[in-house]
Amino acid sequence: MKKKYGFVAVLLLMAVASFAQIRKVPAVVKQSFARQYPKAENVKYNDDLVNVNVSFLLDGEKMNAEYTNKGIWKHTEKKWSFEQLPDSVKEGFHKSRFADRDVKEVVVIYLPADVTQYRIKAEKSSLEKKYLFFSPEGRLLRESITI
Fold this sequence. Notes:
Layout lengths: L1 H21 L4 H10 L4 E7 L3 E8 L2 E8 L4 E8 L6 H9 L6 E10 L3 E9 L5 E6 L5 E6 L2
Antiparallel strand pairs: 1-2, 2-3, 3-4, 4-5, 5-6, 6-7, 7-8
């Protein structure tokens, strides 16, 4: 009986995935993006039915923005290096209990209300990986486990 439900769930997910690839990106999302990033180049939309992810280049840098289906901007991310971080964020990381971990990835996250956060992917081993979110002042805001 469990196999039957598992099979049905897989079919349902495949149907949703195929629908997500067929549906047109809502015009309101394209309009919101164009207003927010009028100088964006190489724009690519990926609609996953719940959100629309937009990858693009801005001033030669790769960026990714996420919008709701109603065109409401949720956040934008840009990859950075540890060296590019503000000194306060580097210092906050070095003073944190995660300072002994290797930095594998750094991302700047721009949020509504002109909020900026810095996400550092820090790894102690292949099993111990965390995302650490810092404020521009270098305060650790939260952490989450990553795969």
